[in-house]
Amino acid sequence: MNEKTKTPKKPKTPRTPMPEQPPFVRARNFLEVTLGYTAELAALEASRCLQCKTPLCRKGCPVEIDIPGFIARLRAGDRDGAYRVLRQTNSLPAVCGRVCPQEVQCEGSCILGKKGEPVAIGRLERYVADSFAAENGCMQLTGETTCALPREIRVACIGSGPSSLTVAGYLSALGVKVTVYEALHELGGVLIYGIPEFRLPKDVVRREVDAMRALDVEFKTNWVGGKTILVRELLDQGFDAVFIGVGAGLPRFMDIPGESLIGVYSANEYLTRVNLGRAYAFPEYDTPVTRGAHVAVFGGGNVAMDAARTALRLGAESVHIVYRRTKGEMPARREELEHALEEGVKLEILANPLRYNGDENRRLVSVTLERQKLGEPDASGRRSPAPTGETFDLPIDTAIIAIGTRPNPILLESTPELKLSKRGYIEVDPETGETSIPGVYAGGDIVTGAATVISAMGAGRRAARSIARKFIGEDAAR
Amino acid sequence: MPYRIVKRKDLIPGQTVLMVVDAPMIAEKARPGNFVILRVNDHGERIPLTIADRDPAAGTITIVFLVVGKSTALLATLQEGEDILDVCGPLGRPTHIEKRKAVICVGGGTGIAAMHHIAKGHHEAGNRVVAVIGARNKDLLLFCDELGSFCPEVLVATDDGSRGHKGFVTEVLRKRLEEDKDIEEVVAIGPVPMMEAVAKVTKPFGVKTTVSLNSIMVDGIGMCGACRCTVDGHVRFACVDGPEFDGHAVDFQELRMRLGQFRCEEKQSFDQFKARS
């Protein structure tokens, strides 16, 4: 084959790297791994944007941020203006800039990515949100100095995760009185109990919540939707609309022998103990967690990455991610996987657990794995693993299962009139987010099953917009 | 929103404490068999405690606990008028109460408090309730008067014979099952070995036996599976599927082992607490 001679092109400007803690340092602390752009780095990166007339990036964003718009203002040195643009459509920019899988959303659609590297939209969003110093809650929530006047409209949100916070942020900026009911003692849902501090500092979440509080959003903790308060009661109390954003909930187990041995955790339990319970600071905090020396995490998603990196930070000597397909099929974000590998997490791919083995005190000592091979692509387009019959033991004292969740029955059982999908999640009108009960909306994992923070926020935004349309008018909904 | 302790009483000095806590929403919704998860202060852990009684008119719930470690010891230091930081509930499925000819409710130690609420539920449903309670000695028995106020019979067993039958509640239970053919259900709440022994006794009689499992919990709302137990060969979450299960189907050995999983950490935490106070 003839080597085609290409005319040497001017090299494309590469993406501006973001400073981060070195792997050997960060693998032993819970401080944020990535440190964020400085003003100079942000300006440099912003200058790479082509300011497309029909921006593809915006279509890739589930909450349709005017991306060229905010970048243009950043380039002009108008950081506050950039913040206002972000806030028009996104209630949690400091969160999204950190945890969105931008490579499959905005950045995945960026035209520069066709031949080189896409604009680092997430990093820029984070820079703007982190460096914007709001004078008050109204300004933080809307970027404007004045907020809409309170109206006689009341909306209740059940759950305080990303979908509900989006509803609360969107509607309170329009002057709607929002009350959020949260079952746990801290606000933020998965942002607090699930995503670790080293990826999303809790202060970032707290700041967003405080801004909503300043706009008169009322937060009630220790209120369990379906137990302490029922959907029907909220409607009877005069709430004009109710938004259900209670998350996916119950962790799945594999139903294999030994799953109840001591040392076998669901990722939810492990992460909740460490993040919500601050078990990393035991015994200063009272919640304990096993500090395993040899840990295996089962699964290939972001939750598995979070659990594995947490185990390292708790002092594990070895951490394996056990996955039944190969690295290429892992649903986790590339960046998370790369970070985990840099920190010393090892991969055990094409392996599936058959049973957990314990000692006489029912403590975990090893897992028996079966080697897999990849077969034909399945319905999801991924090649399905098939057993080879070859087995081997991996000695471990801690196993963390991160293979997904199923719907939490608490609210659903107490609200039998809610129509559910075949998979047991809440069915909603895809346009409006309204459930089979008029005036009751739902969004996030309790509708879709476990998904991403940003897709939950997209669902929250959709529901909030249709609530605004219905109760305030077409003009109000943006 | 803090949860005020409106009444506090040492049921057994230095060991078992009763608290009446201001929590109107929980008081309104609580049913027998429900529990709460509470957190004493902002460094505290979440611990489950059964609701031993409620007074919806006063907006209060009653909790009774044994001081066994750091968190319960810390809770016991709180006085009337002070606040518990977080109280979440009512959690778990309420006791399934059916019309029965007669029911035996068995309570052991601190479990008598939780049993009392369930016995009351059966009584209010019109069932004849026989209470069987046990402790090491007569000074450790709880709720005798309260149970006596609605149960036609309160049978007592003490290890040292200082009151009632000398021996275990299971012996009293077996005798009763042999004599009283109207017993259609047995409910048992107490230490795991007691519940296990009760289930063993009732098995040959073929009497439905309900036990309330006290597994380790974190969130109490089904999110984590820390409380999972094996019932009839299936994994169940005590916080959402229970805490009450068929006593003849529970893997008690597994429950006992899982309850001990943090023994070292619990000791470390408690020792540190005792050294400070």
Q: Segments of chain B where pLDDT lies below 50 for 5+ residues? A: none
Mean pLDDT of chain A: 91
Radius of gyration from the alpha-carbon trace of chain A, in angstroms: 23 Å
Beta-strand segment tally of chain B: 16
Helix-strand sequence of chain B = EEHEEEHEEEHEHEEHEHEEEHEHH
**Portion of residues in helices of chain B?**
25-40%
Biggest sheet of chain A: strands side by side, in what order? 3-2-1-4-13
Largest sheet of chain A: 5 strands, parallel
> Can you count the helices of chain B?
9
Approximately how much beta-strand content do the residues of chain A carry? 15-25%
User: Runs of chain A with pLDDT <50, length 5+?
Assistant: none
Describe the structure.
- The complex is a heterodimer of chains A (478) and B (277).
- Chain A starts with 22 loop residues before the first helix and ends in a 7-residue tail after the last helix.
- Chain A has 19 helices and 13 strands.
- The model of chain A has no long low-confidence stretch (mean pLDDT 91).
- In chain A, the strands form three sheets. A five-stranded parallel beta sheet of chain A has the order 3-2-1-4-13. In chain A, strands 5-12-6-7-8 form a five-stranded parallel beta sheet. Chain A has a three-stranded antiparallel beta sheet with strand order 9-10-11, with no helix packed on it.
- Chain A has helices at 23-26, 39-46, 56-60, 67-75, 79-89, 93-99, 106-109, 121-131, 137-142, 162-173, 190-193, 202-214, 231-236, 267-276, 302-313, 334-343, 409-414, 445-448, 453-471, and strands at residues 154-158, 177-181, 218-220, 241-244, 264-266, 294-298, 318-323, 346-349, 351-358, 364-377, 383-395, 398-401, 440-442.
- In chain A, strand 9 (351-358) and strand 10 form a beta hairpin.
- The longest helix of chain A is centred in the C-terminal third of the chain and has 19 residues, at 453-471.
- Chain A has 478 residues and is of the alpha/beta class.
- Chain B is of the alpha/beta class and 277 residues long.
- Chain B has a seven-stranded antiparallel beta sheet, with helices on both faces.
- In chain B, 53% of the residues are buried.
- The chains are: A alpha/beta (478), B alpha/beta (277).
- Chains A and B meet through helix 14 of A and helix 1, strand 7, strand 14, helix 8 and helix 9 of B.
